[in-house]
């Protein structure tokens, strides 16, 4: 892993290689309306599970931010929760002290998440491989430690409680049935997907992909690979920050865990489970991971660990592009049959 | 002055334990280019085997140590054949990370199922309990033993990789696998042996370090960041780099905790960032020894 | 207009949901949120076992109603997840009580929920004093750091100790312990020469031991959450020669919780702690509890403070159901009905303080000794009727 930096290898990222771009583009545009439709259907079909669904929606936005960094920028990170946590705390602090409008909270979270990503990204993105991995972990740990120390603002290890967001648009109150929370989270997720898709299809997004595929060529045509990566990292930081703020809005509390290493690692697992570099893969992975967790943890928590472990191994060995690539292959297979028929 | 000495001694002792556990990771990462996040899990397996051998089967500490290392290596060799072989090479980082995380989860669940969630211990022999005086500073005998064991491991590894036929072949295979294979070096076997070396070192560290990093099912996940930090700072694949990194981090951590305990964690990670900023490839650039 | 209508509809729906349950013989559900997996999985296990022991001893019915427990796994401190799980318990499972909660942030997270749904929340463990201030529907049957520390600090002062040092984990309960110790110990004429806060994730304690040694203190007050770090701390204390140097070691009983004792081994011998429960507590009721536990689960290795926290919590829940006369539970009234309630528990006499809604209990001074070849916390002294001194103490 460390040697990658020394021998830049265009084949270094396995993820992009498994699906032909055409197939990906096909599902790319159905993906987002599909997420919205399935999300709304879940609202009617599972009215008792809105708390879980809300957490899935907010987490999916976080995993999406990781997809921007990893899937499009090829930046391996285990510290994405630093941005999530910063966003969550920023939103919580804003709500407790000044203004509790949910949109203002999201904005605060996005600005804080983007800001910290910009600052730390500029500092650490010169590194690659294991070194970068360690730097991102270290940044996450320091953010968590700052949150622990600033007890007056963050509540330290007790968590920042007492966040009481105002009704959305002054109309819909966040009640304990979680209807408002869920629809709000779903709307933010879909908006996030649309914006992310737009960004990734813009010249900037294409340049970032270029950096991942071949940084040397980007330099050769006059671009600076590092500044593209830093910008991408900051954009993803905004997404992660908004996701953190969304969690603060819908749950009303922020804990130290939101900036912790386990949360970063879990996001990585969810993303790769779903499939990287596709945006909606993040949603599939999150829904699958958290949904299965919810069902299995109810029966026996330790079986859950064993199961998800085996599942991960299976994905790596047999379905390297994640669940999304499996679906795409299935789609391709069906289409071929139709053609024949 | 006495305080400085005390910090240095404690720091070295802590650093040596970090070294013993981390060097196995450095070997697999540097020489085989595998980000083996299951390294902590292998160390844990070694510790549990030793605990079981010493407590339930009633073996002596030394014998339990040997059994633990041997059994852990035997138990993990099939994994090399079945799993790791498919993900060798730097092109597979992400796959490596996920596969080994998955493996770690399975091992954690398995250990919890077999041994239960409570802490396990490896009883120390009479010889290793108590303290020894080092000038004005008393340190636990066990730690002195670990420092000695760490030094022996360091020398042994250096000899193995630099002075033996095995080491020469291995370094050749690392530098250019295709050429090495063309010259008749059986790289597959070599990789198997190196993998065994890595897991053996993990088990050794798990057993020796059990006093400091107590054995429980979450051991595998709890300390892996620590081990990765040592390898990143030392430079993957470098034996002396790992030793230098482990000692440096051990001393920084100890000094930070002693002088400003309220910001102990800060110190460790701030040092990590600064070092990696200055030496992005670790103290010793990643190549064999 | 739409909003009123909407709220009215919701209200009706919720009212119907509650009313639909208790007609005649009903099932009353209690939702338990606790770590059943992960590094703290033992805690959830002790909760569940204690609940099952209680139900085996006292039956599963109160009056005509059957009491059923629904478990939710929350593997680590994660308040957002805690709230989501509790919300699901209320909305989907229609529980009448919430219970469990091992970590402070997880317990704090549900305050707005229990107020909105008017449901009592019985905390089996989470030990920061401030929790019960956040909602009138919290009742707590565990302990607080203040409660355990104040009598201990008084005892230390009475032993003639003048200079002490405190070493606590750097998080909420640790800081509670530090404050409680400093306040009490200095009030009784002692001096706290150094207050050390240790990072929660520390594994190597040698530097802290050196600092304790250098401070010149005669005794150390230490608090770390139960688990692997505690083990490393206690070991370091005896390994680095502090024990031999005659420095006395005191702390709340989390340090020597029963499941960790076998792993601690002889390093724990002689450690003096103050706590609300020891497995070795000498009373007929505790013997019956431990015996039943052994009968049901084959071993008493995991019986510890969180076991009685849950056991007594279930007792309070049964009492609330009884006081309500069966059927529908009104959360506020139910909590009101157990204020001042006194009973005998395996740990000794308990009373729910009407103000703090926290149990006033006997705190025991214990020393680790070998009993029949097994390490136990042997009670040496008892300090009866200790309230939560930390309730409404400004931070």
UniProtKB/TrEMBL annotation, chain A:
Q: What is this protein called?
A: Branched-chain amino acid ABC transporter permease
Topology relative to the lipid bilayer, per the entry, is:
Multi-pass membrane protein
Localization (cell): Cell membrane
InterPro entries linked: ABC_transp_permease, LivM-like
Q: Which residues cross the membrane?
A: 27-46, 52-74, 81-99, 105-125, 182-200, 230-256, 268-292, 304-327
Q: Give the record's keywords alphabetically.
A: Cell membrane, Membrane, Transmembrane, Transmembrane helix
Originating organism: Azospirillum endophyticum
Q: Could you tell me which CDD domains the record lists for this protein?
A: TM_PBP1_LivM_like (cd06581)
Automatic annotation (TrEMBL), chain B:
Q: Which InterPro entries match?
A: ABC_transp_permease, BCAA_transport_permease
Name the Pfam families for this protein.
BPD_transp_2
Record membrane topology: Multi-pass membrane protein
List the keywords (alphabetical): Amino-acid transport, Cell membrane, Membrane, Transmembrane, Transmembrane helix, Transport
Membrane-crossing segments per the record = 12-31, 61-79, 94-115, 144-161, 190-213, 225-252, 258-277
Q: What is its main location?
A: membrane
Entry superkingdom: Bacteria
Localisation per UniProt entry: Cell membrane
Q: Which PANTHER family does the record cross-reference, listed alphabetically?
A: ABC TRANSPORTER ATP-BINDING PROTEIN (PTHR11795:SF442), BRANCHED-CHAIN AMINO ACID TRANSPORT SYSTEM PERMEASE PROTEIN LIVH (PTHR11795)
What family does this belong to?
Belongs to the binding-protein-dependent transport system permease family. LivHM subfamily.
Q: What is this protein called?
A: Branched-chain amino acid ABC transporter permease
User: Origin organism of this chain?
Assistant: Azospirillum endophyticum
Task: State the organism's lineage.
Answer: Bacteria, Pseudomonadati, Pseudomonadota, Alphaproteobacteria, Rhodospirillales
UniProtKB/TrEMBL annotation, chain C:
Q: Domain Leucine-binding protein spans what residues? A: 27-369
InterPro entries documented for this protein: BCAA_transport, Leu-bd, Peripla_BP_I
Q: Tell me where the signal peptide lies.
A: 1-25
Q: Which Pfam families match?
A: Peripla_BP_6
**What keywords were assigned to this record?**
Amino-acid transport, Signal, Transport
Q: Which domain of life is it from?
A: Bacteria
Q: Which family does it belong to?
A: Belongs to the leucine-binding protein family.
Q: This chain belongs to which protein, by name?
A: ABC transporter substrate-binding protein
Organism encoding this protein:
Azospirillum endophyticum
């Amino acid at each position: 892993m460390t040697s990658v930096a020394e021998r830049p290898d265009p084949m270094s990222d396995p993820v992009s290689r498994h699906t032909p771009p055409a197939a990906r583009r096909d599902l790319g545009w159905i993906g987002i309306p599909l997420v919205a439709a399935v999300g709304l259907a879940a609202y009617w079909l599972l009215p008792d599970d809105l708390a879980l669904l809300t957490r899935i929606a907010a987490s999916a936005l976080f995993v999406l931010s990781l997809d921007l960094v990893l899937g499009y920028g090829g930046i391996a990170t285990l510290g994405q929760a630093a941005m999530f946590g910063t966003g969550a705390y920023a939103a919580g602090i804003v709500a407790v002290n000044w203004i509790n409008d949910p949109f203002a909270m999201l904005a605060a979270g996005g600005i804080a998440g983007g800001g910290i990503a910009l600052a730390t990204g500029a500092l650490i993105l010169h590194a690659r491989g294991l070194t970068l991995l360690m730097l991102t972990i270290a940044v996450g740990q320091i953010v968590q430690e700052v949150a622990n120390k600033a007890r007056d603002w963050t509540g330290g290890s007790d968590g920042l409680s007492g966040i009481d967001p105002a009704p959305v648009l002054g109309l819909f109150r966040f009640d304990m049935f979680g209807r408002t929370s869920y629809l709000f989270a779903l709307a933010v997720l879909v908006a996030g997907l649309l914006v992310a898709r737009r960004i990734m299809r813009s010249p900037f997004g294409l340049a970032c992909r270029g950096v991942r595929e071949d940084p040397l060529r980007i330099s050769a045509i006059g671009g600076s690979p590092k500044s593209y990566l830093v910008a991408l990292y900051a954009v993803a930081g905004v997404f992660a920050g908004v996701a953190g703020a969304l969690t603060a809005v819908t749950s009303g509390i922020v804990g130290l865990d939101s900036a912790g290493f386990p949360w970063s690692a879990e996001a990585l697992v969810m993303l790769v489970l779903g499939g990287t570099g596709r945006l909606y893969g993040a949603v599939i992975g999150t829904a699958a991971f958290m949904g299965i967790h919810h069902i299995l943890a109810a029966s026996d928590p330790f079986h859950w660990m064993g199961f998800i472990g085996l599942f991960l191994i299976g994905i790596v060995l047999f379905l390297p592009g994640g669940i999304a690539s499996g679906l795409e292959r299935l789609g391709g297979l069906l289409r071929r049959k139709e053609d024949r028929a | 002055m006495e305080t400085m000495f005390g910090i240095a001694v404690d720091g070295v002792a802590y650093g040596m334990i970090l070294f013993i556990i981390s060097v196995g990771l450095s070997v697999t990462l540097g020489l085989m280019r595998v980000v083996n996040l299951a390294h902590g899990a292998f160390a844990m397996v070694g510790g549990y085997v030793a605990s079981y051998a010493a407590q339930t089967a009633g073996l002596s500490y030394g014998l339990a140590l040997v059994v633990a290392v041997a059994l852990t290596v035997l138990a993990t060799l099939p994994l090399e054949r079945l799993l790791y072989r498919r993900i060798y090479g730097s092109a597979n980082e992400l796959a490596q990370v996920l596969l080994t995380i998955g493996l770690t989860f399975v091992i954690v669940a398995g250990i919890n199922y077999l041994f239960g969630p409570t802490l396990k211990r490896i009883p120390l022999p009479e010889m290793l309990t108590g303290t020894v005086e080092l000038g004005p500073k008393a340190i636990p005998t066990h730690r002195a033993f670990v420092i000695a064991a760490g030094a022996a491991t360091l020398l042994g590894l250096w000899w193995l990789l630099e002075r033996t036929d095995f080491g020469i072949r291995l370094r050749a295979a690392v530098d250019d696998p295709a050429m090495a294979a063309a010259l008749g070096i059986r790289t597959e076997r070599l990789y198997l042996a190196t993998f065994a070396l890595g897991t053996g070192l993990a088990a050794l560290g798990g057993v020796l370090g059990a006093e400091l990093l107590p054995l429980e099912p979450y051991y595998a996940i709890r300390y892996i960041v620590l081990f990765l930090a040592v390898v990143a700072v030392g430079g993957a694949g470098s034996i002396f780099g790992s030793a230098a990194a482990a000692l440096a981090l051990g001393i920084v951590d100890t000094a930070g905790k002693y002088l400003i305990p309220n910001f102990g964690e800060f110190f460790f990670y701030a040092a990590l960032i600064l070092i990696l900023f200055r030496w992005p490839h670790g103290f010793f650039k990643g190549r064999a020894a | 207009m739409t909003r009123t209508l909407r709220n009215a509809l919701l209200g009706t729906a919720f009212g119907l949901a509650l009313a639909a349950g208790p007609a005649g013989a009903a099932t009353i559900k209690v939702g338990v949120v606790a770590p059943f997996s992960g590094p703290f999985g033992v805690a959830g296990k002790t909760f569940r076992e204690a609940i099952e022991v209680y139900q085996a001893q006292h039956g599963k019915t109160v009056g005509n109603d059957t009491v059923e427990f629904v478990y939710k796994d929350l593997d680590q401190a994660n308040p957002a997840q805690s709230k989501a799980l509790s919300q699901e318990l209320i909305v989907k499972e229609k529980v009448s009580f919430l219970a469990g909660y091992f970590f402070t942030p997880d317990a704090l997270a549900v305050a707005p929920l229990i107020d909105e749904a008017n449901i009592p929340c019985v905390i089996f463990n989470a030990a920061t004093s401030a929790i019960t201030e956040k909602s009138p529907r919290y009742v707590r049957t565990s302990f607080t750091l203040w409660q355990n520390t104040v009598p201990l600090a008084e005892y230390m002062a009475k032993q003639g100790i003048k200079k002490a040092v405190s070493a606590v984990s750097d998080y909420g309960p640790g800081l509670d312990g530090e404050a409680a110790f400093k306040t009490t110990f200095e009030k009784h004429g002692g001096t706290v020469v150094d207050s050390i806060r240790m990072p929660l994730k520390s594994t190597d304690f040698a530097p802290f031991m050196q600092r304790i040694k250098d401070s010149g203190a005669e005794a150390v007050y230490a608090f770390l959450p139960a688990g692997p770090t505690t083990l490393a701390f206690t070991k370091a204390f005896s390994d680095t020669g502090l024990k031999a140097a005659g420095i006395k070691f005191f702390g709340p009983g989390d340090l020597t919780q029963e499941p960790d004792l076998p792993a601690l081994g002889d390093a724990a011998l002689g450690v003096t702690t103050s706590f609300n429960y020891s497995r070795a507590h000498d009373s007929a009721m505790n013997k019956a509890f431990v015996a039943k536990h052994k009968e049901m689960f084959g071993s008493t290795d995991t019986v510890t403070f969180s076991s009685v926290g849950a056991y007594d919590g279930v007792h309070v829940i049964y009492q609330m159901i009884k006081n309500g006369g069966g059927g529908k539970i009104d959360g506020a009234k139910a909590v009101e009905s157990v204020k001042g309630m006194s009973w005998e528990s395996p740990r000794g006499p308990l009373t729910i303080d009407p103000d703090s809604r926290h149990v006033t209990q006997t705190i025991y001074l214990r020393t680790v000794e070998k009993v029949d070849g097994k390490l136990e916390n042997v009670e040496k002294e008892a300090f009866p009727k200790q309230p939560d001194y930390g309730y409404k103490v400004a931070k």
